[in-house]
Every structure is written in structure tokens, then in C-alpha cells.
Design brief:
binds adenosine-5'-triphosphate; ATP-binding; nucleotide-binding; 6-stranded mixed beta sheet; P-loop_NTPase; alpha/beta; 276 residues
Length: 276
């Protein structure tokens, strides 16, 4: 069951981000707030450059916000990184070309100092979970793009992260492979009970994979609209035929393509999806 927002989930409170590079100052985020209770699945959607990746990178301790607070499981992103409670999967997740899939998937465990036997056991378990059994001894170049992304997800899962931070993980894949992987990810999320924060450009992917879809306004990004997706966690491809799916699509499309910069009405947050 979901716990109190902020205590053990992902918490973004009044976060602002200003990038400075020489003379150039870019205000990427202003007053962003979002609470994702542990065990929930959430997506960030918004126009290109609105700051989605920045928000994810703040949670992943890659960049520090210039104002506000970000918490991962109730601790700072730096503490969460040290405790290895989250894993990041991105569109460009790279496999080392000279290592076979098993060795690539073992990489995170190797860095964490896990012994060889346990490493192999956990990597094989993750490979099976993502449906790549039989490809342990293949090189990345021998796999399709979709299979390489599955391997990247397997590598992320070996450390049994409580939080999966995913930045356009299926962005480079064709529509059919992408949808197949969406439903495989749903199965994995249920099996692992991980909390998901996904950055995507696809409205339908956001609906399929989320309890909560947060829409960001164009730069400087802020969270302008939150839609709760009431499909529960038992989801199949049939959800796309549900009239409610179309209603969510239409609501999100309106939220995304409203007048630039104009504040959008907030969806009434449910107790489990409170928007600070
Ligand atoms: N390291 C950086 N240094 C300077 N500016 C940056 C940096 N990273 C991002 N930005 C700027 O911050 C803004 C938000 O970028 P970000 O990548 O977070 O957006 P995004 O919504 O993820 O975009 P996209 O959907 O195109 O991937 C952009 O204007 C971008 O140019």
C-alpha cells in the first residue's frame, strides 16, 4: 500500500533549476512540485526542452537543483545514490560492445563489489525477467534495439532498485516493439514493486505505464496539470479500447497544447497522488 507522500516515495518540492554556462543563463525549472508515493507509477510529459530530463537528473543526483528540495525514499538523491535505491535507464543506455550480455548486465553488481557467483545468479534472474533468456552469451551488436533496451533494464534491475527512473527508455524503438515493451515493463513493475518515474513524449505510453501523468508547461518548466489514471495495476492491451483511455488522451492533449505559458487547471489530486 502506498505510504505518505514524501516519506518513502519520490518527492519534488518547489524545485527550481537555472543552468549557467558562461554568459548563457537558462531557467529550466521554476517551482516544480510533485509527490509520487512508493509503489506508484508516474510519467512526466511536456514539450521538448521543458525540463523533464532535468527533473529526472535531479532525482538521480546527476545535477543539483538551484532551489527547492528533491527526496528519493525520504533521503537526498546523493544519499539514495550511495544506498543504491534507484536505477536510471535512458534512451542511450549503453552496453559495452566487447562484453557479452551477461557480463554487461553484471556490470552494476561488479561495481557494487558483489561476488562472482551471486553476480551471475542475479544477472541471470534479471535477464529472465526481461525475456532475454538464451541471449546471455550474445554480444550487444547481435541484438535488436529493443533487446538491447531490455538488457539495459535487466542491468538496472540487478541491484533491486526501489525506484526506477526512466528517461525515454523506448524512444528509439518502433511503435510495435515499444508497445510490447510497455506491457513487459508493467509486468516487471508488478513483480518488483518498484516505483516508476518515466519521461516520455508519448501520451499513450504515459497512460499505459502510469497511475499519475504530470504535464509540464514549456520552459521554464513547471508542473501545470496532473491526471490520475484510474486503471489500477492489472493492465492488459485491452485498456486501449476502454473509452476512458481516449478520455485521458484527450485531457492530456489539451493540457499539452494549451496556450503557451498559460497556467492550466490542476486535476483534483487524490489522497495518494497529492500534488504539493
Ligand atoms: N547541462 C546543461 N547546461 C545548460 N543548459 C541545459 C543543460 N541541460 C539542459 N539544459 C537546458 O535546460 C532546458 C531543459 O532541458 P531538458 O533536457 O531538461 O528538457 P527536456 O524536457 O527533457 O527536453 P527533451 O524532451 O527535448 O529531451 C533546455 O532549455 C536545455 O537546453
Amino acid at each position: 500500500m502506498a505510504s505518505q507522500p514524501g516519506e518513502s516515495g519520490l518527492s519534488i518540492r518547489d524545485v527550481g533549476m537555472v543552468y549557467r554556462r558562461g554568459e548563457q543563463v537558462t531557467t529550466a525549472l521554476v517551482g516544480c512540485s510533485l509527490e509520487i508515493p512508493e509503489g506508484n507509477w508516474a510519467s512526466l510529459i511536456g514539450a521538448s526542452g521543458c525540463g523533464k530530463s532535468t527533473l529526472l537528473r535531479i532525482l538521480a543526483d546527476i545535477v543539483r537543483p538551484t532551489s527547492g528540495t528533491a527526496l528519493v525514499g525520504g533521503v537526498t538523491p546523493a544519499e539514495a545514490r550511495a544506498a543504491r535505491t534507484f536505477a536510471l535507464v535512458s534512451q542511450q543506455s549503453t552496453m559495452l560492445p566487447w562484453r557479452k550480455i551477461l557480463a554487461n548486465v553484471e556490470l552494476g553488481l561488479e561495481v557494487a563489489g558483489v561476488d562472482k557467483v551471486e553476480r551471475k545468479r542475479r544477472a541471470e534472474e534479471a535477464i529472465e525477467l526481461v525475456g532475454l533468456k538464451g541471449f546471455e552469451q550474445a554480444f550487444p551488436s547481435e541484438l535488436s534495439g529493443g533487446m538491447r533496451q531490455r538488457a539495459a533494464i535487466a542491468r538496472a534491475l540487478t541491484l533491486k532498485p526501489r525506484f526506477l527512473l526512466m528517461d525515454e527508455p523506448f524512444g528509439a524503438l518502433d511503435e510495435i516493439t515499444r508497445e510490447k515493451l510497455n506491457f513487459e515493463l508493467l509486468r516487471i513493475l508488478k513483480e518488483t514493486s518498484a516505483t516508476l518515474l518515466l519521461v516520455t513524449h508519448s501520451i499513450s505510453e504515459a497512460i499505459i505505464l502510469s497511475d499519475t501523468v504530470a504535464v509540464m508547461s514549456p520552459r521554464p518548466g513547471r508542473i501545470s496539470h496532473v491526471v490520475d489514471i484510474g486503471f489500477g495495476h492489472e493492465r492488459t492491451g485491452a485498456m486501449r479500447d476502454d473509452p476512458q483511455f481516449g478520455a485521458y488522451e484527450s485531457e492530456l492533449r489539451h493540457a499539452l497544447h494549451g496556450p503557451a505559458g498559460a497556467p492550466r487547471p490542476m486535476a483534483t489530486p487524490s489522497p495518494s497522488h497529492a500534488l504539493a
